[in-house]
Design goal:
This protein is α+β, with helices and mostly antiparallel strands and about 110 residues long. It is built from 2 helices and 2 strands, in the order αβαβ. The two termini are about 45 Å apart.
């Protein structure tokens, strides 16, 4: 590498470190207490236009979400089944204790 390129890369690395160090954390702004909740302490949507009733059916002790941008490949479904089998084998979990959620979306 030539000297100007090294100098630029050094400047770029230093600038990115300084930028990250000088940035305030948003962790204090994101708190569970700030969300409106129901009697059980679960967050509730601000507008009635959002249907979040499906979350009440995710009741298992073990929960996972599998996202699939392509329906045809069924990869998310296969991963969800494999996840259930592995949890049963590794942890001895019963199928009734698991709640896999498969998100099928298409562009």
């Amino acid at each position: 590498m030539s000297t100007p390129r090294r100098r630029f890369l050094g400047w770029l690395g230093s600038a990115s470190l300084l930028g990250a160090a000088g940035r305030p954390s948003i962790a204090p702004l994101v708190r569970q207490e700030s969300l409106p909740g129901d009697a059980d302490g679960h967050a509730v949507p601000l507008a009635a236009t959002y249907d979040m009733s499906w979350t009440n059916r995710v009741t298992g002790k073990y929960k996972a979400v599998f996202d699939s941008p392509e329906i045809a490949s069924a990869a998310a479904l296969a991963r969800a089944v494999a996840w259930c089998e592995m949890y049963k084998e590794v942890y001895g979990a019963e199928r009734t204790e698991m709640s896999p959620v498969v998100v099928l979306r298409h562009w």
